[in-house]
Amino acid sequence: MSAMDRRDFVKTVSAAVGTAALAGIGPVTAASDEKTTKAQASGRAMYEVFALKYAGPFERKLAATVYFTGWTEDIQINYYIWAIRAKDGETTLVDTGLGSKLGAKFKSFVPAHQVAARLGIKPEQVTRVVLTHMHFDHVGGMEDFPEVYPHAKFYVQKKEFDFWVNNPLSKRAPFQRSRYDAGVQAVAELAKTKRLAIIDGDHVIGPKMELLLLPGHSPGLQGVLIPTAKGQTVVGSDCAHLFRSYKEDNPSPIIVDLPGWMLSYDKLRAKVPLENMFPGHDVLMLTNFPKVAEDITRLA
User: Is residue 241 part of a domain?
Assistant: First the structure.
């Protein structure tokens, strides 16, 4: 059976299973961004995209990163956040990394906001923080970020918020490996303010900047679509852990909805060239792109 045949089989046979674990999630009202309409009127915006490594490298089996591939092959991964910078210096950060307490247990850890400072990012320049999903290495920094970036508005998908904050299933054994209670609680606390926007599906949040709902790895993972000098570009976080997952149509084995994940890949391919899809943990983001500061590279 070919790779694409297997993919069609998974879509057909597994569709009924993909989102069953999410049943019972309650409604959350999506917040609107009043600045969006005014910002769109300013015309086409161009952005630069940077990868900021805050921990790593870490050794792991390839099969822990690419689905059913390389059971005996060792690879390295890094932990990143990303910065999307507009021409005027206004900055959107994508994810928050590990919190300082948990991060101290990891190799070569530097708090993500301290790495961002190496790029010359001032706290007042950060107007948006996108939470792609609420796994420990992406949401842990919520212990620090709301205070470090007091002018930033935070964005999370409704499905992601509901699952990790409200659904008891998220505390069951299969999800504990990815869960970080302090990070989840920090997001829940921010939801009591106007600083957290809970988004339901694709949503424009800035000039030519759009959140894309990309479920599969987690219930409500989202990426950020922006125009760059390379063309339309997506910061996809863990929609793929490595570049090769996009190329080979084969995601990570950490999955809540495999059919949904395949459809997320289809969605991205319809919007973005393959070379402009950036993954969550590939060391190539640090080694194969221009270095602009310690542990920081320009992706686009």
Answer: yes
